[in-house]
Design brief:
mainly alpha
C-alpha cells in the first residue's frame, strides 16, 4: 500500500505547510512529538499514513485507500473537540472506537 500525499487530502480542511518555530516538518511521529497538530498538513498526512498501516485490518486495497484516508482525515477533525490531550494515541483510540459511526 502506498502512502497518501498532500495533493490526495480531501480538500475540506485548511492546513499549514510550514512548521511552527522549533518544529521540523521532516521529522514526524515519535521523534517529533506524541501530540498531533491538526492544523499542520505534514502531521495529518503522517498520522493518516500510520493509521492506514497500523489500524486498518484487513489492509486497504488500491480502490479503497483514498476513501479510507479521507474518512480518517474527517474523523481527525471530528475528534478535535473530544480529544483534550491532543495525543496521537488518544486520536487513534477515538477513531477506532467511533469508526463504524462515521
Amino acid at each position: 500500500m502506498s502512502s497518501i500525499s498532500a495533493n490526495e487530502l480531501s480538500g475540506n480542511y485548511q492546513y499549514s505547510w510550514q512548521a511552527v518555530p522549533g518544529d521540523n516538518p521532516k521529522i514526524t511521529g515519535t521523534p517529533d512529538s506524541n501530540l498531533l497538530s491538526t492544523t499542520e498538513g505534514y502531521e495529518v498526512i503522517d498520522f493518516i499514513n500510520g493509521f492506514l498501516k497500523n489500524n486498518i485490518n484487513p489492509p486497504v486495497s488500491v480502490q479503497t485507500r483514498l476513501p479510507t484516508a479521507h474518512k480518517i482525515e474527517k474523523m481527525i477533525h471530528l475528534a478535535k473537540g473530544k480529544v483534550a490531550d491532543h495525543k496521537r494515541s488518544t486520536y487513534v483510540t477515538w477513531i477506532v472506537n467511533n469508526w463504524s459511526n462515521h
